[in-house]
Amino acid sequence: MLQTLHIKNFALIEHLDIDFKGSFSTLTGETGAGKSILLGALGLVLGNRADLGSLKDKGIKCIVEAYFDIEGYNLQPFFKENDLDYESVTIIRREILPSGKSRAFINDSPVTLSELQELGSYLIDIHSQQQTRELSDEQYQLQILDAVAGNTALLKTYSSQLASYKAVQSELKKLVEQKSNLGKEQDYNTYLLNELIVANLKSEEQAQLETEQEKLSNVEFIKEGLARVLAVANEEQAGAVQNLLEIKNALQKISGLSPEYENYFERISSILIELDDVTESVSQSYDILVDDPQALELVNQKLQLIYALQKKHNVTTVEELIAIKENLEEQVILSEGLDEAITEKEDMAARLKQETDATAAKIHEARQKAIPILTEKIIAILAQLGMPNARFNFELNATDTYHSSGKDSINLLFSANKGTSFGLLKKVASGGEMSRIMLAVKAVLANYSKLPSIIFDEIDTGVSGEIANKMGDIMKAMSREMQVLAITHLPQIAAKGDSHYKVYKTTQGDTTISELKLLTTEERIREIAEMLSGKDISESALTHARALLG
């Protein structure tokens, strides 16, 4: 339950500390006094979006801090899953910085908004007039049934199964599309692949072939050059080898006279050895070099094939052609294996569909069983609220469509009076009737949802007199199961609270601020009397207020 709320620099509130006392608290105040501001501040700690407009003073940060007694509500798993420290009195803090950024903390540990929202959903149900309109929403009607039916575990299982089923369906769809696309290109891809396989390309082959082509195309020119090299090197009288031998012999004679001459001798000896080696290699190249038109033709054919393939695939190297060949091989193999993969996914999808359908059927069955229980309880409460002839008809239909919470569609039909036919709730119920129906629903759900707290924001809209008194009794009864806070304009409801708070505005200089205080018994009498008769409080109004307060 909500124990304490601290607010600083939020909207019209400079600083406010509220300690909530008793199980049923009422909150009153004139229109515009700041009741909605309190709900806005509480909404922040429950994970609502924030903006700079929330800051009263744009130069300092806004802080909203709430203390919740959560012992006995089995929330330890949430703290464990999110790696947070569990405290029986948990503190949630939200800060909005002047920069516009916001931060959230649970027991002083930083958390994300989604984590804050999840914890908030376990702590408080804030009922607003907007939620009364949600009573006409099909999804909300199913949520009511599920609470009474105890479908929480089944819905969690269904949600997991549906997610798996949709994921497999998506994978299956991609495989089918892939097969269709590959099927259109399969023949052409196979043709291209066979063409590259026949080419039997090897890395660096193009450079080798181009070099060989140059040699075979210039045999006579190359032989002429090599012959000239051999002639110059090996000429008996004036060849390079003979001249180097003479130099070597001359240096050998004087090499012993100085290290300098010894070095010359060694260097010339090395040159001579290298020249002999080069000459021998040139001679071998000359001997094996023959004019071979047939070999040249084969080289030219292979190169033309490579150039044609490069042009077709818009690449410039053999390595790129080899990569294309490998990719085509993968596509062809993939296409051949897709049928097996598709069959496997189809089997998996069929199994998951069967499991999901079975869970959806259990949810539907539980909802059907909950309908008479829920209807009976709501009708009994509405009879207390001046609607003794109210009737409901939940039309629950199993469909083939997968929704987030099952496969059901629902129509909530309503009749307020004897002799009138059923109609859709949203079309036939008045505002006052909707308020009473919603209170009846909340009163029933209080026995099932096990939420620590509920806040009613003017759920009494459109009612008055004895009906308002009964609404107060119902809220009082609800407070035996959970903490109830009612924001109200009706004295009959305000008088039912264990504690009574008043929101009011004051002016300090040029600034208007909202404040709140817990009323004493005497202050409470005057507040209720003012609600009964206006600013000019009469003695009869005071007497009536005392009577309402018992």
From TrEMBL:
Claim: Transport is one of the keywords in the record: no
Coiled-coil regions, chain positions: 335-369
Taxonomy, superkingdom: Bacteria
Domain RecF/RecN/SMC N-terminal stretches: 1-510
Transmembrane segments: none
SUPFAM superfamilies to which the protein is assigned, alphabetical: P-loop containing nucleoside triphosphate hydrolases
UniProt keywords, alphabetically: ATP-binding, Coiled coil, DNA damage, DNA repair, Nucleotide-binding
NCBIfam families for the chain: recN
Function of the protein: May be involved in recombinational repair of damaged DNA.
Family per record: Belongs to the RecN family.
Name of the protein in its database record: DNA repair protein RecN
Annotated source species: Flavobacterium rhizosphaerae
Gene assigned in the entry: recN
